[in-house]
């Protein structure tokens, strides 16, 4: 089947290497009303210390057995670097059972049994996800800070069939901020990927 996915081949240029790094994410360490979602205040300050909990997390199809402070957010479980940590920027967006969530607002202990997908889980072997490829084609990033969250939210936006027009994409991606102002390119990349996968509303 014809797709616009691109291979993670070794003959990429330096520009492409930076691009691939941005769209495939960083190191894996460990809203909507969904289990595990907490308020920003609780995420920041969850009160007195509690006994560690054994937690089994499924991330990108792999089970991870962890012992965590019950107050640990999903974001802190997944990554060393984080964005605002307050639910405001969208940089921490991951998929939970296919739905987008801000991982800084989710407690890891409360998402046990859920299927978590991060940017590292999008590519199929050496083939980038169509939206990752579109981000490279459209130069849809500059510093790359927001890019993993933009792509995960974009994947959900397409799956929700909210990518029917540039304005619709802007509306449904409004929770993901880009301080570099790459919005036009991000919208174009999402539109390309939606068309490539036939996931445009009414299409
Ligand atoms: S780090 Fe989660 S929304 Fe900013
Ligand atoms: S590319 Fe720099 S914040 Fe979006």
Give your account of this protein's structure.
The chain is α+β, with helices and mostly antiparallel strands and 203 residues long. Helices cover 31% and strands 12% of the residues. A 5-stranded mixed β-sheet has the order 2-1-5-3-4, with helices on one face. Residues 82-85, 87-92, 102, 104 line the site of one FE2/S2 (inorganic) cluster. One FE2/S2 (inorganic) cluster is lined by residues 82-85, 87-92, 102, 104.
Helices and strands in order, then pairings?
Elements: H1 14-24, H2 40-44, E1 53-59, E2 62-68, H3 74-78, E3 93-96, E4 99-102, E5 115-117, H4 130-137, H5 147-159, H6 166-172, H7 183-196
Parallel strand pairs: 1-5
Antiparallel strand pairs: 1-2, 3-4, 3-5
Helix pairs in contact: 1-4, 4-7, 5-7
Number of DSSP E strands: 5
Q: Name the poorly predicted regions.
A: 1-5, 7-12, 27-35
Largest sheet: 5 strands, mixed
Helix content: 25-40%
Mean pLDDT, as a whole number? 84
Shape: globular
Strands of the largest sheet, in order across it?
A: 2-1-5-3-4
Radius of gyration: 17 Å
Q: What amount of the residues lies in strands? A: 5-15%
Through-space gap between termini: 18 Å
What is the count of DSSP helices, taking H or I runs of 4+ residues?
7
Structural class: alpha+beta
Element-by-element helix/strand order: HHEEHEEEHHHH
Bound molecules: FE2/S2 (inorganic) cluster
């Amino acid at each position: 089947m014809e797709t616009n996915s691109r291979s993670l081949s070794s003959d990429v240029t330096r520009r492409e290497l930076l691009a691939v790094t941005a769209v495939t994410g960083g190191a894996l360490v460990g809203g909507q009303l969904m289990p595990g979602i907490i308020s920003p205040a609780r995420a920041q300050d969850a009160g007195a210390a509690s006994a560690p909990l054994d937690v089994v997390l499924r991330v990108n199809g792999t089970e991870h057995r962890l012992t965590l402070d019950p107050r640990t957010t999903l974001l802190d479980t997944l990554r060393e670097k984080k964005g605002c940590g307050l639910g405001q920027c969208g940089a921490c967006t991951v998929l939970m059972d296919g739905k987008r969530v801000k991982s800084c607002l989710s407690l890891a202990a409360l998402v046990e049994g859920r299927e978590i997908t991060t940017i590292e889980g999008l590519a199929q072997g050496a083939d980038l996800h169509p939206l990752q490829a579109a981000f490279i084609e459209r130069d849809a990033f500059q510093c790359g800070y927001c890019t993993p969250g933009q792509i995960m939210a974009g994947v959900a936006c397409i799956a929700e069939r909210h990518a029917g027009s540039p304005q619709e994409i802007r509306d449904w991606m409004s929770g993901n901020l880009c301080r570099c102002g790459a919005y036009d390119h991000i919208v174009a990349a999402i539109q390309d990927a939606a068309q490539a996968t036939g996931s445009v509303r009414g299409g």
